[in-house]
Design brief:
The chain is of the alpha+beta class. Helix content is about 15%, strand content about 50%.
Length: about 130
């Protein structure tokens, strides 16, 4: 597994944020298992983010997205908005061949996101 931290600009809003992406590759089965993406609420210094994840304490407020893969195909996307946006919001999408077959939404934020496009972006970077 490896992780990268980068400053990013949101295509839709133009807002600048710090993004931490971590990837897990199962070397035994030769497949990608998941990609985790944290979009922090503000621009943070790299050492603050690295220290938070190394200690697993006080992770800055962030939208958390986890893309789960099986046999290198997207199986599930889970979105948890930042606690500042919504305290108990969760969205889960289950996919087969890049088609959403089921979703589970709890107190959704109303934000429209193209998870297939986003996961293609992260998948291509691996």
């Amino acid at each position: 597994m490896f992780a990268e931290i980068r400053d990013t600009t949101d295509d839709q809003t133009g807002n600048l944020f710090t993004q931490r992406s971590s990837y897990y590759y199962d070397w035994v089965h030769k497949e990608l298992r998941y990609i985790e993406v944290y979009n922090f609420d503000g621009v943070l210094k790299r050492n603050v983010v690295k220290r938070a994840f190394r200690k697993q304490k006080r992770i800055p407020p962030a939208t958390y997205i986890k893309y789960t893969f099986f046999e290198n195909k997207r199986l599930k996307v889970k979105l948890v908005p930042s606690k500042r946006e919504c305290e108990q919001c969760v969205e889960e999408y289950y996919l087969v061949n890049d088609v959403v077959i089921s979703n589970n939404k709890k107190n959704i934020s109303g934000e429209k996101r193209d998870f297939i496009k986003e996961s293609n972006y992260y998948f291509a970077r691996f």
